[in-house]
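Class, discuss our next protein.
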Amino acid sequence: MEKVRRSFTVSLDLEKAYDNRALREEPWYFWVEGSTPEDEAPEEGASFTFMVPKKEISMVPDMGKWKRSQAYADYIGFILTLNEGVKGKKLTCEYKVSETVEKLMDLLGTLDRWINETPPVDQPSRFGNKAYRTWFAKLDQEAEALVSVVLPADKRAAAPEIAVYLKESVGNSTRIDYGTGHEAAFAAFLCCLCKVGALRVDDQLAIVFKVFNRYLEVMRKLQKTYRMEPAGSQGVWGLDDFQFLPFIWGSSQFIDHPTLEPRHFVDERVVNEHHQDYMFLECIKFINEMKTGPFAEHSNQLWNISAVPSWSKVNQGLIRMYKAECLEKFPVIQHFKFGSLLSIQPAKP
């Protein structure tokens, strides 16, 4: 088994990927280091004219417009800011839980409860249980109301715009599938809540460790209950059938860990012992539950990543891989929607 493991050349050499110069992004402008919660709220004069987001990337040549857009700059800045915020911290560490975070947890709890109320139906096909469409129809109908409760009273007008990202984040009701594009929509949903001032700079840890982690629990329940197909899966050559961001943020949690190295995450004993503290290991645990056979065969990319010597190299390499395999892929980005908060207009210089 060892002989198939020790190179990672399928899509990216993680050993060479640790190049900070290639990863420099402008800091996300609402979350300037050292700011107070009052500082990073949008200025009074900078009010948005909210709009229902729509698709803008209809052909491969449009990808340049996406990469130059304010939406791209805001989205990648948001991901990297959170990546920095969780560095070296456990899921079980202490952090502030704001009223908005509590409301988001209630929202996700509602989605979870609806799964319980919508059991799978008997059907000939093993995958893509049609009861998912009943569950999704409930969200489609209630999304704006759910989002309105989360927003400050003076930002309720943003609900129709932000609710679109929530609806996009749970999978596709026609194909009954889920993939990294849907995961990106949930990150976009959280990014929008930050841009309107509902979430603040001191919510960073709670955004990842509490809200996003709960979102993952609900998505895993959806995937298992309704046997959802992976959207655009690369099979054994993909990182994971469904998720990507928890591997990025999860690897950041491990940076400078005194004992756990990348080689340890393929050890089931280590996974079972530490998964409650580390998002990365929660992902591995879910893979082990869902797939059978040797890990190196069903999750070859992750197996190869376990050979990288340090978590910092894994983390930077995964960021590069995320850009290349998700954010720069037309089949993913053609479904992304743009509004006033995540704008297709060129990024400000």
